[in-house]
């Protein structure tokens, strides 16, 4: 695995831990829907299903990870959420929510992990 892949996997691990500590249940990680793409984390939050995009960055020219979700990426996440529901049954009573977790890994110190709910 290259450095970027390792960085992303580490960020996803931190994100999954954050969701679990918040009382959610992780249902799937790196779930693929053919050529449509991949959902980083699918979780259950009470009676809602959460499709979670994780963006991990080191400080630098690429900016904050939360800025990485463009309108096109949001559309793709909505499509992937529909694909998940199609394969796993009807929408849950609490519906489907799309969240974003941004992870910043400074050169020194603890990672900064932010969770934004209902971004798309």
From TrEMBL:
Coiled coil: none annotated. InterPro entries: Restrct_endonuc-II-like, tRNA_endonuc-like_dom_sf, UPF0102_YraN-like. It holds the Pfam family UPF0102. Transmembrane segments: none annotated. Gene3D superfamilies: 3.40.1350.10. One of its GO terms (molecular function) is nucleic acid binding. HAMAP family: UPF0102 (MF_00048). Belongs to the UPF0102 family. This is UPF0102 protein FF041_27810.
